[in-house]
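Section 3.1: Structural characterization of target chains.
Under the original work plan, the team committed to producing a structural model for every single-chain target entering the pipeline before any wet-lab resources were allocated. The record below documents one such target. The sequence was received from the expression subgroup and is listed exactly as submitted; it comprises 120 residues.
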Amino acid sequence: MSQFQLSCLLFCCSYLLLLALQIPLILRKVRPNTTYGLRIRETLSNETVWYDANAYSGKFGAKIFGSLFLFAAISSYIPRFTLSQYVGLNIFATFFGSVIWVIFSIRHAKMLDKNLSSPT
């Protein structure tokens, strides 16, 4: 197996693992804790916010990591890509996707907390 194929396998397996870790969050199976899930003040202080925010974060994360998986698999077939270009591009995509995922998840949790705590 070449280094290029090994890198593709590593990225694809990593994305599939991260995708699988989103499933319990989407299904609302993870109780409030300080280890797994979206752990910010708003989610840890309100169980309703915890489940809703983590379900949203899980769905968004599944879309991000599913897209990254497809990106890693498809971009491995681009001709004339060197190993360093492939790895660099995937690291950049992972970083960018993860930052977007975290920002949107935190914004959603804060919005949920604000809506639940404001009097109607």
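The CA atoms of residues 5 and 76 lie 8 Å apart.
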